[in-house]
Amino acid sequence: MSCSDKIARWNVVGFQGSLMTYFTQPIYFSSIILGSLYHADHLSRAMYQRLTEMEVLPPPFSLNKPLLSGISNTEARQPGKAPNFSVNWTIGDQGLEVINATTGKDDLGRPSRLCKHALYTRWIDLHSKLSSTLRIQTLEPRSYHEAKQAAAQYHSAKQTLFRAFLQAGLGAWVKKPVEQDQFSFSNCV
């Protein structure tokens, strides 16, 4: 899938993911600004125009149409290989985390604090603390996959998007193996 396919997906289901829909409405971009190679028609087609014939989405989802723009003073693009590492940090973290983009681990071989296991561990904790106030009421899921699947409206919207891609002749959405989501909280600790 291309980057624009993934952003088009976020313009349908939001960029919060299925697990966060337990806690919040879909979160959509209000604007997208490109630093180079901006072409209004091409960008709007990639972001949402190719999906305008999509079936009705389940509430609270909708086809988001963010403001699109380019910058007025673009720098020349420097061709070259992208670095094979990523850096993440948020308020509350003790420091930056540098992760090898190929392995998903730090230089000591530890998985990233942003890996599925780590995020699911945090989600389970938050789910147990806020269970009475959640948008999606369900028993505590037994696995990561089960937790994601319980976000039924999110998955219905996602399937509507996948059908729209097929009907528009844009191909089938490439899916990851389901096995990589079949782990439980006990595997995380």
From TrEMBL:
* PROSITE patterns per record: A_DEAMIN_EDITASE
A to I editase domain mapped to chain residues = 1-183
* Alphabetized GO MF terms: double-stranded RNA adenosine deaminase activity; double-stranded RNA binding; tRNA-specific adenosine deaminase activity
Q: Look up the domain of life of the source.
A: Eukaryota
A Gene Ontology biological process in which this protein takes part is:
RNA processing
Q: Single GO cellular component annotation?
A: nucleolus
Pfam families, per database record = A_deamin
What's the name of the protein?
A: A to I editase domain-containing protein
Taxonomic source organism? Poecilia latipinna (sailfin molly)
